[in-house]
Amino acid sequence: MFSKGNKNRSAAKITKIDTLIGHNSEITGDVSFSGGLHVDGVVKGNIYADPDSGSVLSVSERGLIEGEVRVPNIMLNGTVRGDVHAAEHIELAEKAKVIGNVYYTLIEMMRGAEVNGSLVHQARDAKQDFLPAPKKAEAKETGE
After folding, report:
1. Which pLDDT tens digit goes with each residue over 53-81?
2. Domain segments of the chain as ranges
């Protein structure tokens, strides 16, 4: 599914889904997770996972994310309206659509996938840039 030459990861870690957002569900707000997250529904908010966690986000053909995505491994076949940051690997399937920039280390892009923004390659050790910026509300509370 990901790179065939990478023997360091177990297939169970890559394919296991710990959390499912079903096709009749809509989440408003940021989602932070570890492990596997599968989105069939709508997320109106940002999605984060620790860059060293090996976490996997999969978005089905009917899945929609309106916000920024910062996840180590991403399998996208739905739509993201926002920037996408994949610290390790991103796979853009036939129906994938990104309205924003894609920051990646390794990328697979199938015929039919669409990126309406820039593709930006990042070095493997650029994980310090992977962490989300502080929220504006937090900056206001601290007087910045």
Report:
1. 999 999 999 999 999 999 999 999 999 99
2. 11-126
